Input
Amino acid sequence: MGLCLAQRMIEIGIYPMLTWRTETGFQRIQNRLEVCFKERFDTLLIDFSIPETLKTLSEKTANTLDYTVDFVQDNYESLIAGACDETVHDYFLHHVAFRAALLKKISRSMLARKKGRMIYVSSTAAIRQNPGQGFYAAAKQASETLYRNIGLELGDRGVTTVSLRPGYVDAGRGKAYFHLNKNEILKNKLLDVKHITDTILFLLSDSAEGFNASELVMDRGMTAGK
Amino acid sequence: MTVENILKDILCDILDIDLSDIEPETYLIRDLDAESIDLLELAVNINQQFNTSVNEDDLFLRKLRFYLEEAEERGIEKNSYLKNKYPFLPNDRIMEILDDIEKGPVLKMKDLIHYVTRQN
Output
């Protein structure tokens, strides 16, 4: 999804900086974008599980960021009562504490310029999770709260935030879940990647500036009823 | 441009006030009604304009009351304890702070000037 968004951004004249954390991820970016969009994007190693990688985002680079779109979230499925303490600790350290440090760095540079828009791609699981998704949902909610507070604290100074909560997406984990369960009801609720990327681009646009410090559910009504 | 003038410009921009409203003796919170978000923006701007890292707890004397309690608990003379914690502040300023602290937040424009001057 991140690659699709980057491609759309380049097409409309935005210069995206994509983060990667494995060589495979880096190669995926290169293979998808390098041929058609050479020198119209950049990459940066940011690994939420390695705090030192925060330093790769220099102040100089941070000062060029007008927008951020945050997709990062490892899946971690476990029953609460059956979880490994150490894994749980690391999971929250990586996804909440590291994210907070990253957001601090970026939001300060945006504050200095009084301009910035941050989109967090969350999930409907943040509010309505399945058994086994407790830690995933808790990390999503915690991350949403970080974004919401940045919007609350810095909104009047030009730095705003929105969290988007997509439902099932026909890509990645959503696609795998759907194909595993073959649920006909869910089939009608599936979103495709373009739905999400179009919505993110809208949220980055001036037309969406009224949305701040809030969470938007995008799931074709899936979580609205019983 | 002097450190004082740069800081004044930053504060005028953040607080939407005139240069004439700020003197070294001006209290940031008592006189100018600076709020925590204003101080954050001030720190970010100092960081950028002077290309220096800023310890906001020190710059804004945030732990002042905590340090005073700590000094009392440990039986250490407050003046020297604060001098150790805030090496950028001159002795006479520390004495002034100790006399003034009961009246409200003590942070003054000149404290910022001392901090930034020492950092550079």
